[in-house]
Amino acid sequence: MKTWTKHEDPNNKYGATFTLGDRNIVLPPGAIISVTRGEFFNIPRLIINGILTRFIMKSMTKNEDLLYAELTGQMQGGIGQTTTVWIDGKRMNQFRTRGFHNFARRFFSWVFYSGKVQSYFLTWEHQGQLPASEEFTTFVKTYGRHFDGGKLVKKANPPDKGLMTFP
C-alpha cells in the first residue's frame, strides 16, 4: 500500500504539501492530470475540507489506478489544492463518483460553491514528465473552470491536445 509523505513549508509554518507516489514518473499515453483548487476558505470551511480530505487521502492509498497525488494547503488565504494523476480518465471518474469522494462531493459541495470561495477545476491528458507544482496552479487558474462563490465565471478552456504547454 502507498503512503503519504508530508513536506513542511520552511517559509510558512501554516502550509504544507502531502505527496503520494513518485513525482519523477514518466506518464504513459492517455494519462490524466486533474487539479482542484479552492481559495478564500474561511476557518470552518478549512476545517471541514481538511477532515473530508483525510478520508479521501486514505482511499487514494488503496487505488492502483492513481499514479501520483499532491495536496497543498495554506491557512493564509484559505487555500487548498489537490492534484491527481491517473492512468486514464475512466478510472479517475470511477474514483470521483464512488465511495467517500462521491459522498463528500454530493453533500459538502457548499464548501467549494458558496461564500467568497474561488474554485478552479481542470482535467487534461498529459504525457511525459510532470510539470512543477507551481505550474499546476498557474495552469488551473489560467485554463480551468472558475467559480466565484458558486457562480460560474469561466468555463474550462484548455489548449488543444498536443499543445499543452505551461505558461
Question: Would you summarize the structure shown here?
Answer:
With about 170 residues, the chain is an alpha+beta fold. Helices cover about 30% and strands about 35% of the residues.
Description:
With 167 residues, this protein is of the alpha+beta class. 28% of the residues lie in helices and 34% in strands. The protein has four helices and ten strands, in the order E-E-E-E-H-E-E-H-H-E-E-H-E-E. The chain has helices spanning 43-61, 89-96, 99-107, 133-143, and strands at 4-8, 15-20, 26-27, 32-39, 66-74, 79-86, 118-125, 128-129, 145-148, 151-154. It has an eight-stranded antiparallel beta sheet with strand order 1-2-5-6-4-7-9-10, with helices on both faces. A two-stranded antiparallel ribbon has the order 3-8. A hairpin with a 2-residue loop joins strand 9 (145-148) and strand 10 (151-154). The longest helix has 19 residues, at 43-61. The protein is globular.
